[in-house]
Amino acid sequence: MIFDHVTNISIYKNLGQRINQAFEFIQTTDFSKYPKGKHEIDGDKLFFLVNEYETKTVQNNILESHRKYIDLQYMISGNEIINFEVFVNQIVNKEYDEISDYSLFVGQESNKLCLSRGMCAMFFPNDLHMPGFALTNSEQIKKIVVKIKID
Fold first, then answer.
1. Which of 20, 27, 121, 144 has its CA 20 to 30 A from that of 77?
2. Could you tell me the CATH number of the domain that includes residue 31?
3. Which residues are CB-contacts of 76 (< 8 A; sequence separation ≥ 6)?
4. What is the number of structural domains in the chain?
5. What region does 78 belong to: left with phi over 0, alpha with psi -120 to 50, or beta?
6. Where are the alpha helices (H) located in the chain, listed in sequence order?
7. What predicted TM-score, i.e. pTM, was given to this entire model?
8. What strands lie across the sheet with 102-106, from one edge to the other?
9. pLDDT above 90 coverage of the chain, percent
10. Which residue segment(s) compose the domain that 142 sits in?
11. Could you tell me which of 124, 129, 87 has the C-alpha nearest to residue 112?
């Protein structure tokens, strides 16, 4: 997992061409021009989702993971808590769905990070995560999720 401010992401450039392309994309793109939904950068190899939603005040303990894609989550506006854990034999809540590229797991003792404006978090396949929780009160957020295909 990587958690940092967008202004510091140049230090991660050696992690691979697609990861570098994703970081460069979030640094140079005006996301106000894109409506909610899915948008392609490089076909199914690199694309992004514009998400807008209200954060939840009730936290469940179900975490997701992906096998085909790395998630790069970048906060445009608002704040949210993301629960996360490293995968270590957690109980499967939903078996892997190959079409939607996710599995769900029952969390044990989740760590928490606060994703606020300008911050980004990158989740690799072993990083179980569940975004969307309110810091205190529910609030509207706008977040970009870049999906980076793993070869």
1. 20
2. 2.60.120.370
3. 31, 117, 141, 142, 143, 144
4. 1
5. left
6. 17-28
7. 0.94
8. 91-97, 102-106, 62-65, 127-133, 79-86, 111-116
9. 89
10. 2-149
11. 129
